[in-house]
């Protein structure tokens, strides 16, 4: 049996499972509940409870950013003009809020033992949004980009409020190393 036929027959076996799982994760209430349970379970399993306040703050900032961008951009969903696998949601599409939340969790877990679990979760959420036809790859990528921005903003807010940013959080940026005198050359300083 050629390799292509083996691949297609295996995909045929998992396709109904992928479809049903994608539809299940389309429900915002289910995603919030599943994400909450996932965070609690992984924080207990990997003993990462100290980062929970930071994680909650970053997710809150991410969701506020996502709602703001959706309201401002008012991008129509791709399923409004093309067929999709489910009924087309009535809200705007840019960015994907599902991907934004999942990628925010994933980014905060970078460098931790829980990272592979969050990465698989975020990649499945991103795939399911495009697979169902309710988002484009660009809208999912916008969710990923905003997730990075939300994590950096959360770190800045926590540092400004003198709250603890857990050592296990590994967000790499240079905002803390910027010179205090913007616009001046190194010679003028």
Structural summary, described in words:
The protein has about 190 residues and is mainly alpha-helical. The chain contains six helices and no strands. The protein has helices at about 5-25, 30-45, 50-75, 95-110, 115-130, 135-160. The longest helix is centred in the C-terminal third of the chain and has 24 residues, at about 135-160. The model is unreliable at about 180-185 (pLDDT under 50).
In brief, what are we looking at here?
The chain has 189 residues and is an all-alpha fold. The protein has helices at 3-24, 28-45, 52-73, 97-108, 115-132, 137-160.
Order of helices and strands: HHHHHH
Report Rg.
19 Å
Individual helix count: 6
Q: N-to-C terminal Cα separation, in Å?
A: 71 Å
- SS-based class: mainly alpha
Shape field: globular
Q: Which percent range describes the beta-strand content? A: under 5%
Overall strand count:
0
Segments where pLDDT lies below 50 for 5+ residues? 178-186
Averaged pLDDT: 82
Largest sheet: none
Helix share bin: 55-70%
User: How many distinct folded domains?
Assistant: 1
